[in-house]
Amino acid sequence: MKKITLLLLIVCLLGFTSAALAQVRRQAPAPRRAVIKANVLSPFVLTASGFVEYAFTPQISGQFGAFTTGASYKDVDFEGYGFTPEVRYYLSDTKQAPNGFYVAGYGRILNYKLTVEKEENEEKKTYTATYAPVGAGVAAGNQFIFNSGISLDLFMGVGVNGGSLKVNSGTEEDFDLGFLNLVGSGVRFRPGITVGYSF
Known about the structure:
Layout lengths: L1 H26 L6 E6 L7 E9 L4 E14 L2 E15 L9 E21 L2 E9 L2 E12 L4 E13 L2 E3 L9 H7 L2 E13 L1
């Protein structure tokens, strides 16, 4: 009888322990794998830029960025948009993506419409062109995910963009090529500070 009582007691104790552990597991917070964020430097160049990042494994995440812009440089007005797909590899042994130091490779797809207004023979003329460079680059940075879910991402990248100006009206001389170099052609640095929320 004592053996049966002891056996029942052990079975009940194991069942209680198993249920308690399952409850703890259910209450443990799931790792934050997704981040929605905005680049806080973009408004300084009259641009709105946002990103969505998702961690597929503890070390690898994918990020997709998009921006829209509209500004002027000298006598050139431009508006446009672009996309930045990116793959990140997180190097930390103690943190999981998307948290910690990372290196990344990214692509750039850009599209701009340029407008120049000039006065010729007392007549105002409008010239237009399009510019759609593509490019790729590498970046490194550190993303901090705080307990509150707030994220802070500091990064610096360098890439190469290339494309040709397509003039719809006017000539290439009507459009400042220095402006095009600033916007999309040749070697380009890509600094960024984003703030967002992870979940």
